[in-house]
UniProtKB/TrEMBL annotation:
This is Neuropeptide receptor A24. Residues 369-378 have a biased composition (Basic and acidic residues). Gene3D superfamilies: Rhodopsin 7-helix transmembrane proteins. Residues 369-391 are annotated as: Disordered. It comes from Bombyx mori. Belongs to the G-protein coupled receptor 1 family. The chain crosses the membrane at residues 58-83, 95-115, 135-153, 173-194, 226-248, 283-306, 318-340. Residues 74-337 form the G-protein coupled receptors family 1 profile domain.
Length: 391
């Protein structure tokens, strides 16, 4: 099921009661002959334990390790840039900090542990962390998408109703707290229903599995879990994507399609350009999010209605690729900020100069995150800096 696959439990790993499991379908990879070998007992209930060749394990490890490092460092730098520079403390940037916190959480507290389990089919991190890891996974994903939704609503109100008062610091913090509270509520079933159990395999080895066991049955057999997964998919993907598409479509028509009456002043032109830059950056963030998570949700739908798909010999690597793409969304946002926003770009340069990544003495020659000469000359002409439309 979807949320089990999001964590260390793959749907193909559990299909009957573990306590009474007496039939297996175990697939091993014969390195010498380069083929999969099946060792079955009755082969009625699939229990797949895929062992990849060492070079494939190294390849996947490099891919996941690189993603975790880039996501963690990039999002921590974004947080540092906004919190240490007063000029960066706008409503949109506060929401971006919240988004970075969620992305850093999933990369540090979830991905590494899940990947280790998916690669080895063994959960060595204990009973509590089985629950906590799943809780963090759903919590961070929910917080990310709801933060993106909050940004789209803020941009929509700021551009479509410019005379309305903007959100203040307290209101922004209140919305952020509500996002985390609602996300915690959505992810709370994982703390309740996930558990661990040791299972003996036909080859004599004992492995620990982390899986969900709902009141009406265990994973892939529970109608409650199926309903929860469908609700989760609707609340954290389809509804937010539809809402953000509508909001940014209206904003795009307003910024790029409407014609102002009379002669435009330089102040008005600068204000519109500033808003366009922010909206373009957020549209790219939303599109990347939708693309990264679409295969994961499609995989969930396909395996729910066609469970035989999980018996495909290469399903482990297919799922690893889908899982990597979904989790890699956490590393793209800092790259997008650096690419499309000059102040974030200068902030990243300043951070790496502080760390000595580009040699000594660079920090003294590097500009602060304040406006450059052109920005200073335009300060009186661009009110967007004051109301938060420019980051």
């Amino acid at each position: 099921m979807m949320l089990d696959e999001l964590g260390p439990t793959v749907a193909s790993n559990q299909s009957t009661s573990l306590a009474d499991l007496d039939s297996f379908y175990v697939t091993f990879y014969d390195v010498e002959n380069e083929r999969y070998v099946n060792d079955s007992q009755n082969a009625t209930e699939p229990f797949q334990s895929f062992i990849l060749p060492w070079w494939r394990q190294i390849l996947w490890t490099v891919l996941f390790a690189g993603m975790v490092v880039v996501a963690t460092v990039g999002n921590l730098v974004v947080i540092w840039i906004v919190l240490t520079n007063k000029r960066m403390r706008s409503v949109t940037n506060y929401f971006l900090v919240n988004l970075s916190v969620a992305d850093a959480m999933v990369s540090t507290l979830n991905v590494t542990f899940n990947f280790t389990y998916m690669l080895n089919s063994n959960w060595p991190f204990g009973h509590f962390y089985c629950k906590f890891c799943q809780f963090i996974a759903v919590l961070s994903i929910s917080a990310s998408v709801f933060t993106l939704l909050a940004i789209s609503v803020d941009r929509y109100v700021a551009i479509m109703s410019p005379l309305q008062p903007r959100l203040g610091k307290r209101a922004t913090l209140g919305i952020t707290a509500a996002i985390w509270a609602w996300s915690s509520f959505i992810s709370s079933p994982n703390l309740i229903y996930f558990t661990t159990e040791n299972v003996s395999l036909p080859d004599g080895t004992i492995r620990c599995v982390c899986y969900s066991h709902w009141p009406d049955g265990m994973t892939t057999r529970s109608r409650l879990e199926y309903a929860y997964n469908v609700l989760f998919m609707v609340l954290t993907y389809f509804m937010p994507i539809i809402a953000m598409t509508y909001a940014y479509s209206r904003v795009g028509v307003e910024l790029w399609g409407s014609q102002s009456i009379g002669e435009c002043t330089q102040r008005q032109l600068d204000n519109v350009k500033s808003k366009r830059r922010v909206v373009k950056m957020m549209i790219v963030v939303v599109v990347i999010f939708a693309v990264c998570w679409l295969p994961f949700h499609v995989y969930f739908v396909v395996t729910s209605y066609y469970p035989d798909v999980v018996s495909y010999p290469h399903i482990q690597e297919i799922y690893l690729g889908i899982y990597w793409l979904a989790m890699s969304n956490s590393m793209y946002n800092p790259i997008i900020y650096c690419w499309m926003n000059s102040k974030f770009r200068r902030g990243f340069k300043q951070f790496f100069w502080c760390c000595g990544a580009f040699g000594g003495g660079g920090l003294a020659r590097h500009r602060a995150l304040g406006p450059d000469r052109t920005d200073r000359s335009m300060r009186s002409l661009s009110p967007s800096r004051k109301n938060g439309t420019s980051m």
